């Protein structure tokens, strides 16, 4: 074997040996550091984990207890959930502080950092923060609660959920309507609770008896169990039209079955009036042609 090849091989082996030695040294250093950490902080880590697990369990238990207590006191369900959630978060925050204390970490720097961050975030997040403020106003003032039927900012539906940021409505078609709370506070809110009002006009001929028609319509509406008893349905002679006597009717039906019930009642009224020989006229005009001599 040539001398140059021998020298090259020896040099390569020497470099590989040094590289392996560095890897072994680094691995040994990592192992020593891990052992030292576990030796010094194993009980602190275990204690912190136990504190967090217990804190999470206690927080969930406290949330359930507070929620049941609020329900027992017959508080609004939205406000009850908010209070229970705050109680849970308070317990979790306390558990986190205890866990940090296991490592000797003081919370003063964190409080200062959170304060500075909150000031900066308040400038950048005015929209979301205004939603949270409006949500808190809705929860505490409860102009409506879950299950009510409301109309606000041109949107109508049954209140499904109220959070700090948004209010969620659903309509009869199952459409989910999410409204930022800042667009609700300060606006005019129509709240008809769990029912929605139906306002309708039915025209009958001037030659028919309006009292008989009113009685037929009242009986027809009362025959539907979906119609609310309170407030009582209102039926009466509303106005005198050009081609008909218009009978107005107002009644309340469940929001979740609004169009389904409305269509069924309209059909039943139409059939009842036909059966009673009461005419529903169409618009009519009398046209007179006056002829004259042209001189």
Task: List the defining traits of the structure above.
SH3 type barrels, 295 residues, three-stranded antiparallel sheet, alpha+beta, single chain, 6 helices
Task: Write a structural description.
With 295 residues, this protein is α+β, with helices and mostly antiparallel strands. The chain contains six helices and eight strands; from the N terminus they run ααααββββββαββα. The strands form two sheets. Strands 4-3-2-1-5 form a five-stranded antiparallel β-sheet. The chain has a three-stranded antiparallel β-sheet with strand order 6-8-7. Strand 2 (155-162) and strand 3 (166-170) form a beta hairpin. The longest helix has 70 residues, at 3-72. The protein is elongated. The N and C termini lie far apart (142 Å). The model has no long low-confidence stretch (mean pLDDT 80).
Kindly summarize this structure in a few lines.
This protein has 295 residues and is of the alpha+beta class. Helices cover 54% and strands 17% of the residues.
Say what the CATH topology of the domain at 196-275 is: Alpha-Beta Plaits
In total, how many beta strands? 8
Counting copies of identical and different chains, the oligomeric state is single chain
**Cα distance spanning the termini:** 142 Å
- State which percent range the strand residues make up: 15-25%
User: Helical residue percent?
Assistant: 40-55%
- Name the structural class: alpha+beta
Q: What is the H/E string?
A: HHHHEEEEEEHEEH
Shape: elongated
Mean pLDDT, all residues: 80
Reported for the largest beta sheet, the result is:
5 strands, antiparallel
């Amino acid at each position: 074997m040539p001398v140059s090849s021998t020298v090259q091989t020896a040099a390569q082996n020497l470099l590989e040996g040094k590289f392996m030695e560095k890897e072994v040294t680094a691995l040994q250093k990592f192992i020593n550091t891990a052992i030292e950490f576990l030796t010094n902080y194993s009980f602190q880590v275990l204690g912190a984990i136990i504190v967090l697990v217990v804190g999470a369990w206690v927080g969930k238990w406290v949330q359930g207890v507070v929620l049941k207590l609020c329900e027992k006191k017959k508080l609004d369900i939205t406000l009850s959930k908010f209070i229970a959630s705050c109680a849970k978060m308070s317990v979790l925050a306390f558990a986190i502080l205890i866990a940090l204390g296991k490592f000797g970490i003081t919370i003063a720097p964190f409080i200062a950092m959170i304060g500075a961050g909150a000031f900066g975030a308040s400038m950048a997040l005015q929209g979301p923060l205004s939603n949270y403020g409006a949500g808190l106003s809705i929860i505490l003032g409860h102009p409506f609660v879950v299950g009510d039927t409301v109309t606000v900012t041109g949107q109508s539906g049954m209140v499904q959920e109220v959070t700090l940021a948004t209010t969620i409505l659903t309509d009869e078609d199952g459409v989910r309507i999410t409204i930022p709370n800042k667009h609700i506070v300060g606006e005019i809110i129509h709240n008809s609770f769990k029912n929605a009002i139906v306002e309708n006009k039915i025209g009958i001929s001037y030659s028919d008896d309006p009292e008989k028609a009113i009685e037929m319509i009242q009986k027809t509406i009362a025959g539907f169990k979906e119609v609310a008893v309170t407030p009582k349905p209102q039926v009466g002679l509303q106005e005198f039209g050009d081609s008909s006597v218009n009978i107005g009717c107002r009644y309340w039906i469940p929001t979740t079955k609004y169009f389904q019930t409305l269509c069924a009642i309209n059909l039943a009224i139409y059939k009842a009036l036909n059966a009673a020989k009461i005419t529903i006229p169409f618009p009519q005009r009398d046209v007179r042609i006056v002829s004259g001599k042209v001189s």
